[in-house]
Amino acid sequence: MKFLSLVSGSSGNASLIATDSTKILVDCGISAKKTDTLLKEAGVERGLHEIDALILTHEHSDHIKGVKRVMSAYGIPVYGSSGTLSALSAVTKDEYFNYAGRELMEPVRADFEFSIGDIHILPFNIYHDAAEPYAYRFEIYEGDKCTETALMTDCGHYDDYICDHLTELDAVLMEANHDPVMLQNGPYPMMLKRRIISGRGHLSNALAGELLAKIFQPKLKKVKLGHLSKENNTPELAVATVRDKLISLRGSETAGLVSIAAASPEILTEVYAD
């Protein structure tokens, strides 16, 4: 299987989960044209024409920019929470999502597994200022082997429920959005700063490190940090903070057991490939 972040950041988010027979796009916060180009760079020869489904985490613009084009031009079905799917028309001011687009919408429920081809998907609730945001866990079976990955960004805090859904993973794309000091001293208006640090905002580097320490086990080999703020973070700071927090909470031996890196906001980043 292949798990790639096409892009990840405040300006747009999209990821690919793929096997030989099934290809799923998670979010499409960039144009359909750019998505198609990146998919081809990722080895999907026919780009969007090969995508079996688009799964949405929530309805914010940096996650849905290309959704209408993906649906209307390529006939790709879109999966998401009822809240997310219902919010698309209001957010975009486009009645397409209330009429023609409805035929391609497939609501899913948190903690109820569904399958697309040979990829098994478990949605779960997260904490963000959106209608009904989800993160997703993916399981792929090949004989006796089960590969387990997850994608969770845009979440203001974590709890035991989230930790439970992120256990026993092989790889994870998780949020490390900001450094609190950079955010405090940065250019954002106070209202936006308060939104980001709230329990329905975004995980800081330190909180991401604490979460990783909670879910870490020897099976987890690859961690990619996503949705980094361009203004309030750097890849180097995010990785260092998360790694230091993991070591301080779980011991120095963990440093050599797991790879931690930042997903790029502009180019492909491999989360997991087997």
Task: Describe the protein's architecture and organization.
The chain is an alpha/beta fold and 274 residues long. 29% of the residues lie in helices and 27% in strands. The strands form 2 sheets. It has a 7-stranded mixed sheet with strand order 6-5-4-3-2-1-14. Strands 7-8-9-10-11-12-13 form a 7-stranded mixed sheet, with helices on one face. Helix 8 packs across helix 9 (235-250). The longest helix has 16 residues, at 235-250.
Main features:
274 residues, seven-stranded mixed beta sheet, 27% strand, globular
Which sequence of SSEs, written as H and E, runs from N to C? EEEHEHHEHEEEEEHEHHHEHEE
Mind describing the biggest β-sheet? 7 strands, mixed
Structural class: alpha/beta
Can you tell me the residue ranges where pLDDT is under 50 for at least 5 consecutive residues? none
Q: What portion of residues belong to β-strands? A: 25-35%
Q: Work out the number of β strands.
A: 14
What is the tally of helical segments?
Answer: 9
Q: What's the mean pLDDT score?
A: 97
Overall form: globular
